[in-house]
Design a protein that fits this description.
By secondary structure, the protein is α+β, with helices and mostly antiparallel strands. The protein has helices at 3-17, 47-56, 67-79, 81-101, 157-223, 229-244, 246-263, 272-276, 296-302, 304-325, 370-436, 442-476, 500-505; strands spanning 107-118, 138-152, 330-337, 340-341, 355-357, 360-362. The protein has a single domain (17-106, 153-330, 384-505), classed as Outer membrane efflux proteins (OEP). The protein contains 13 helices and six strands. Strands 1, 2, 3, 4, 5 and 6 form a six-stranded antiparallel beta sheet that branches. Helix 5 runs antiparallel to helix 10. Mean pLDDT is 83; it is low at 1-5 and 15-19.
Length: 507
């Protein structure tokens, strides 16, 4: 009678010794050889410039010196639905980790019941049931008990599963940061595009006023006997053409306003009046920030997509261990306690007791190559994750280089267009003065006026594009999430409506 418990104890202790074994490869980061700097940077960044940029990256939108933009960003971070969805995905990932970790602990279920069982007595030589010598076909049964099981994590299957779940949490956190960066980029881009469209609208309005002045001047010169009806018709045609340019710009402004509202988590159009009434009542573009300084190593450290790809590789590596552990024995301790009786007073007697306690070892013997195929699959997925990480790094560097190129070239492009706009304005003013004095043809006025309109509009478009380039560079550098702490979000569940057991076991 003492041999079985002694052997069982030795068996348990021997199994626990295996608990220190964790099969499968340990994660090792994949180190890529990075360049010392970016090719398209205008100069080698100094440590002071890098430190300044690192600080500015936390709230890079503040570099545009636009209070309204700052307020819209703060509102979007609180109310944007994509961010709220990303918050819930982090909660779900953490719950998956807790679910995986629960396998470390004994699993226990309790049961109780009662009723009547009827047995067949139509079989010859039916054995008498214990406690029922009359061999009655019916019996009252009361039962209660518990079933428990505990898996000994001898080869680290559970540990690898938990490790993979923890890496999945990291991936969801980085995905939330990427969502935040996308939100900031989309919002600032939409806001800059809106301000650019309003600037172009104000330029078009000014040109409409100039065209109206030209019509008035042509009519005045006609009445004074200097002009003719052809000049009036030409001026009227120009006025109609300039007026027609206003409607597409109005539509663009309204559409951009709707887009900004949705990014804030509001209904389209909620901000229309506020965005139309900009400070000072004059449409203008935000200021252009200073060119940021960065290094490839900083980009790798800050880009959420790179960080997520690295964490996904770590998760895939852990899942190799989960697959390898399937090839090893599985040790478990099942426990069943299930007394049965026909009367309540008998339910707790020794004779009613029924239980089993043992140590089980399961060894996979023949499964047609299923487990080895799972190992091959896990290793292939891990290698694919490693390669995806490398591709993500290369893509990130290309985006930074492209953004730097666009910023620097558009900077010079805007400067040239600004000079062209000034020269066109001077030529248009001289043509109007000469025409008013009767010293030139009205065709020269129309030509210089159209040239000025095109130059002003092209400059406004180029200035808007240059600001969009600044957004692209900050985003490609992985800026915007560093100063943002993860929100502590709770599921919208009313605890008062839960059952007593749900309250007791929920955290």
């Amino acid at each position: 009678m003492k041999t079985a418990p002694r052997n069982l104890t030795a068996f348990c202790l021997g199994s626990l010794l295996f608990a220190g074994c964790t099969v499968g490869p340990d994660y090792k980061p994949d180190h890529m050889k990075l360049p010392s700097g970016f090719v398209e940077s205008d100069h080698a960044a100094t440590p002071e410039e890098i430190a300044r940029t690192e600080e500015e990256m936390k709230e890079w939108w503040g570099q545009y010196n636009d209070p309204l933009l700052n307020r819209l960003v703060a509102q979007a971070i609180k109310g944007n639905y994509d961010l709220l969805i990303a918050d819930q995905r982090i909660i779900a990932a953490r719950a998956v980790r807790e679910e995986a970790a629960s396998a470390w602990y004994p699993q226990l279920d309790a049961n109780a019941g009662g009723g009547t069982n009827r047995y067949s007595i139509a079989v010859d030589n039916w054995p008498l049931r214990p406690g029922n010598p009359a061999n009655q076909p019916q019996a009252s049964v009361l039962t209660y008990g518990a079933q428990a099981s505990w898996e000994i994590d001898a080869f680290g299957r559970i540990r690898r599963e938990v490790e993979a779940s923890e890496r999945a949490i990291d991936v969801s956190i980085e995905a939330r940061r990427a969502t935040l960066m996308t939100l900031l980029s989309d919002l600032v881009r939409a806001y800059i595009a809106l301000r650019g469209a309003q600037l172009r609208f104000s330029i078009a309005q000014a040109n409409v006023k100039n065209a109206q002045d030209e019509v008035d001047l042509a009519k005045k010169l006609y009445l004074e006997g200097i002009g003719n009806t052809l000049q009036i018709a030409q001026a009227s045609s120009e006025l109609d053409s300039e007026t027609a340019t206003l409607e597409p710009l109005r539509a663009q402004i309204d559409q951009l306003t709707h887009g900004v509202s949705v990014l804030l988590g509001d209904m389209p159009g909620d901000l229309k009046q506020e965005l139309e009434a900009l400070p000072g009542g004059v449409a203008s573009l935000p200021v252009t920030p200073r060119f940021p300084a960065t290094l490839p190593s900083i980009v790798v450290a800050n880009r959420p997509d790179i960080r997520a790809a690295e964490r996904a590789y770590a998760e895939s590596t852990a899942r190799i261990g989960v697959a390898v552990a399937q090839l090893y024995p599985k040790f478990s301790i099942p426990l069943n306690f299930n007394p049965n009786a026909s009367a309540m007073y008998q339910a707790f007697q020794i004779n009613a007791m029924s239980w089993s306690f043992m140590m089980l070892a399961t060894l996979p013997v023949m499964h047609g190559g299923r487990f080895t195929s799972q190992v091959v699959e896990a290793r292939a997925r891990a290698e694919a994750s490693r390669l995806a990480y490398r591709k993500t790094v290369l893509t990130a560097f290309r985006e930074v280089e492209d953004a730097m190129t666009s910023w620097l070239h558009n900077d010079r492009y805007v400067a040239q267009l600004h000079r062209a706009s000034q020269d066109s304005g001077l030529a248009a003013d001289r043509a109007r003065r000469l025409y008013a004095a009767g010293l030139t043809d009205y065709l020269n006025v129309l030509t210089t006026q159209r040239t000025l309109l095109n130059a002003q509009d092209r400059e406004a478009v180029a200035r808007t594009a240059r600001l969009q380039d600044t957004v692209a560079l900050y985003t490609s550098m992985g800026a915007g999430w560093q100063g943002m702490a993860l929100r502590t979000t709770e599921l919208p569940i009313d605890a008062a409506k839960q059952s007593i057991l749900a309250k007791a076991f929920s955290r």
